[in-house]
Amino acid sequence: MEERIRFNLNGRETEITIDPTLTLLWVLRDQFGLTGTKYGCGIGFCGACTIILEDEAVRSCLLPVSDVNGKKLLTIEGLAVNGQPHPIQKAFMEHDGLQCGYCTPGMIMNAYGLLLKNPEPSRQEVIDGMQENLCRCGAHIRIIEAVQSAAREMKGGK
Amino acid sequence: MKKRTIQKSGTGQENSFHLKRRDFFKLLGGGIIFYYSTWDPSELLALPLAQRRGVPTDYNAFLLIREDGTVNNYTGKIEMGQGIITSLAQQMADELDVTFESIHMVMGDTALCPWDAGTWGSLTTRQFSHHMCAAAAEARAVLLEMGAEYLQLPVSNLTVKEGVIHGISDPGKKVSYGELAKGKRLERYLDVKPAVKKYTEYNYVGQSLLHTDAWEKVTGKAKYTGDYRLPGMLYARILRPPSLGATLISVDYSEAEKMDGIQVVRDGDLVAVLHELPDMAAAALVKIKAEYSFDEKDVNQDTIFKYLLEAPSADREVARSGNLEEGQRMADAVIESEFHDGYVAHAPIEPHTALAIVEEDSATIWASTQSPFGTQDSIAALLGFDLEQVRVIAPFVGGGFGGKSPHQQAVEAVRLSKITGKPVMVAWTREEEFMYDTYRPAAVVRIRSGMTSSGKITLWNFSQYFAGSRGSDTIYAVPHALTMGYDQSRDAPQVHPFATGAWRAPGNNTNTFARESQIDIMAAQAGIDPLQFRLDNLEDQQMIDVLKAVADKFGYSPAAGPSGRGIGIACGIDAGTYVAHIARVKVNEETGEVKVIRVACAQDMGLCVNPQGATLQMESCITMGMGYALTEDIEFEGGKLFTKNFDSYQIPLFSWVPEIETVILDRQHMPPQGGGEPAIICMGGVIANAIFDATGARLYQLPMTPGRVLEAIRKARAS
Questions:
Q1: Per-residue confidence at B29, pLDDT binned at 50, 70, 90?
Q2: Which pLDDT score, from 0 to 100, does residue B53 have?
Q3: How far is B653 from chain A (nearest CA, A)?
Q4: Range of B363's domain?
Q5: Peptide bond preceding B703: is omega within 30 degrees of 0, i.e. cis?
Q6: Chain A window 9-68: which residues touch B at a Cβ cutoff of 8 Å?
Q7: B5-13 long-range contacts, CB within 8 A, separation 24+
Q8: If residue B508 lies in a helix (H) or strand (E), which one and from where to where?
Q9: In a domain, B28, yes or no
């Protein structure tokens, strides 16, 4: 009962023949070696597994891989181009918006989705938009600053 | 599993190790690292097990100068977000006189790094770094001797800059560390060990530097244990009982066995299903039918406090001065209080994970652990291997907070790899992470204290039950005081209904909450401003200084509580570091909800290696500490846990984040103290005191949930 599933993964057309009920998170990690996307809770509560699906931040731990057929996916590995960090990645580094780093890819992808929807968020809008992503290290205050700073830098479609 | 002993020749071991190491580096795609022995195994075997390990005396164990002049800096400590990957490199660079950029940290690998008990207790800077700096100082001096011979100049005529030795009178004469060491261990030792540098000679130490692991972490390249893959690797899911302490009576895994590619393992109480895909292992697990018997303690999150007070304990006098009767006689008012604190989970976002490959004469384990060497001890004992046959590697760890000192997941992975003969990944689910966490213990603190009418404390009788004694001794100058600890007795059965352990600043969160609340109660009763009351009862100048510093940072103006402003104060000592907090909260008196608006924190941590990193840890403590103060509580009935995932355990969120201001006192001339834990100890007390200041309601129990806040407000209004 394997199926062929085609999707665009980090800018590349991709095809895999696989059990369509498998979880996207584990397919990304095990079949594509994209281990930047993390397991944290398995119930869509923590956001460590956040990726961008069709310009929307989604929780990959809740999605069957069949759901991405014909769609466009972006994971943390696809964000930096030619070794140049994306402005959100750069801002996380410059603001030290991370500690253990385990929630970081999910935070960055969630911020990416947030800024797609709202390129000029207020501080409160950043807080609201990041609210569902959990960080246990307490890097929140720096993450808020990083997302605001990235938004400023990205203005004008940079 | 049966233990076994393997007879092996020394040569065989070396070969085995060499192969494993090559595989390892192939896997990482990293460069070649020169191998050396950090200790002589024959010496170790002559010692009883408990004393086998010690910090190596050979400085080569801590560093290796590579041919290109870069430096491998070895530490048995692990990086879990506390930032030592940066701060240790700062110290090493200064002590060796090389550039910060030339330092390459090699951490948490038992085959490469000097022995270390574990990354806990805020000990990296205040303990480990002394050994490391002494090693670097000796290496530097040896290199200078070698340089003197090479350049034909006396050592007194040499200077070092960025890893290059120059003649002072003849700066054209120079040789680099890399050219002298040639990537090998240095075989020369000094009879008289050179002194480490003075704080005035540091360059990098004291500078604020961004974390060096950020690039790997923002790109998803940073490898945590669960990110490793080995050919033929299987994911294991382990059958778990419905409650802790339940005993497996019967199990039927026939349906699971029928699934394609599933391997079922039963080894005593360990029942697991394995598959190359984690989803398939999970699907097989739910097909297993099992029966259990239950023998559970009749206790839950509400009755636990009475239960603890009645439980048998080991009684210990922690501190005593004067005599209590005299203190009582001198007092115009005596106040008795009892404080309660529930179980709290570590809840790192990375659950416990281990990847193990057990072969005939060796085992390699990647594990998310705070104690790679402790894990090595356990695995060697389990397999009947010598320590050198077991290699444990702790890559980046996704948060620990004390919860990753135990390493049950590594033991499980090793047992399953041994049985299946394949590499096995045990990656706990969030539910397993909550179930097998070693919670911060629930605890009771009783305080009886007395003071004169002018607010001078005369009596202090502090008793903690099952919290642990860290931070229990009073910080105030009291003539008649007794601090008692009532903790788990070694011989008695386990008192807590499930495993408990160290949680960021163990014991001290509970003890500081109780002490600082009691002080606030006394200050209010005396009608004295709570900052002034503290200053009046302190003699310790360091504590006085941090209190004044935080008051200054906050812009504090004195008022006796409850002032209605919602401002609270708390202070304490942890891991040698002095901290003081002032917080402002807003209490919704209709709902009981508490919003922390602003927190200022001052810290005297002695020499601060990386002020940026230390500031992050203070912010981390303040943010994380709001969780145990306000919401985090494990709900249970006997061994049955109702807290299973983040939907039933509320950790701090973005919307909680207050305005945070921090100040680190300039104490560069003092020895370094802890940085990862201290600033969390005041969070319960400072918020409780701010709630009192806002409402007049006194909270005696953590977490201060809306229900408890409302109840306290109701009581305050009634009295």
A1: very low
A2: 82
A3: 6
A4: 225-294+352-427
A5: yes
A6: 19, 21-23, 26, 29-30, 33-43, 45-46, 48
A7: B5/B384, B6/B360, B6/B361, B6/B384, B6/B385, B6/B389, B8/B361, B8/B386, B8/B389, B12/B361, B13/B361, B13/B386, B13/B388, B13/B389
A8: helix B508-526
A9: no
Phi, psi of B30 (to 5 degrees): -90, 180
CA distance B629 to B121: 21
In the predicted structure, residue B20 carries a pLDDT above the cut 90? no
Position B491 confidence tier, pLDDT thresholds 50, 70, 90: confident
Residues B451, B574, single domain; the answer is: yes
* CA distance, residue A139 to nearest chain B CA (Å): 6
Nearest chain A Cα distance for residue B656, angstroms: 9
Q: Is B657 helix (H, G, I), strand (E, B) or coil?
A: coil
For residues A71 and A93, membership in a common domain is answered with no
B392 shares its domain with B539: no
- The reported pLDDT for the residue numbered B295 is 84
Whichever domain contains A128, its CATH number is 1.10.150.120
Distance from CA of B119 to the nearest CA of A (A): 14
Note down the domain range covering A94. Answer: 87-154
- Tell whether B209 lies on the interface with A, counting CB pairs under 8 A: no
Question: Do B339 and B195 have their domain in common?
Answer: no
Question: What pLDDT was estimated at residue A42?
Answer: 98
Q: Is residue B660's pLDDT more than 60?
A: yes
Both structure tokens of B273: 């299903």
Q: Which one of B107, B218, B260, B632 would you mutate to disrupt binding with A, by most A Cβ within 10 Å of its Cβ? A: B218
**Residues B356 and B339 both lie in one domain:** no
Q: How many domains does chain A have?
A: 2
CATH of the domain at A66: 3.10.20.30
Interval B689-714 mean pLDDT: 98
Task: Answer with the one of B177, B200, B219 that is the final residue of a domain.
Answer: B219
- Check: complex ipTM more than 0.95: yes
Q: Which whole number is the average pLDDT over B696-705?
A: 98
Q: Is the pLDDT of residue B8 over 70?
A: no
- Using alpha carbons only, what angle is made at residue B428 by residues A137 and B261, rounded to the nearest 5 degrees? 145
Tokens of B258: 């029928």
Q: Which of B:345-364 have CB within 8 Å of A?
A: 347-351
The predicted model gives B387-415 an average pLDDT of 97
Q: pLDDT value at position B52?
A: 58
pTM, to two decimals: 0.93
Last residue of a domain, one of A56, A78, A100: A78
CB atoms within 10 A of CB B637: 17
Q: Is B398 on the interface with A (CB under 8 A)?
A: yes
Residue B351 with chain A: CB contacts under 8 Å: 39-40
Same domain, B252 and B313: no
Question: Residue B401 carries which DSSP code?
Answer: T
- Tell if the CB–CB gap between A101 and B213 is shorter than 8 Å: yes
Domain boundary among A23, A57, A78: A78
- Examine the domain organization and report whether A92 and A73 are in the same domain: no
Question: Would you call B286 an interface residue with chain A, using a CB distance cutoff of 8 Å?
Answer: no
Average pLDDT of chain A is 96
- Asked if B616's CB is within 8 angstroms of A134's CB, the reply is no
Instruction: Check CB contact under 8 Å for B616 and A136.
Output: no
B15 domain residue, yes or no: no
Q: What is the mean pLDDT of residues B509-535?
A: 98
Amino acid at residue number A47: G
Do A63 and A45 have their domain in common?
Answer: yes
- Is B532 within 8 Å of B558 (Cβ atoms)? yes
pLDDT score of B105: 98
Contact A96 B214 (CB under 8 A): yes
| Judgement on whether residues B620 and B495 belong to the same structural domain of the protein | yes
- Whether residue B97 is found in the same domain as residue B151: yes
Residues of A numbered 94-123 whose beta carbons fall under 8 angstroms of chain B's beta carbons: which are they?
94, 96, 98-105, 108
Is B473 an interface residue toward A (CB < 8 Å)? no
Which of B79, B212, B219 is best to mutate for the A interface (most A CBs within 10 A)?
Answer: B219
Q: How far apart are CA B22 and CA B390, in angstroms?
A: 15
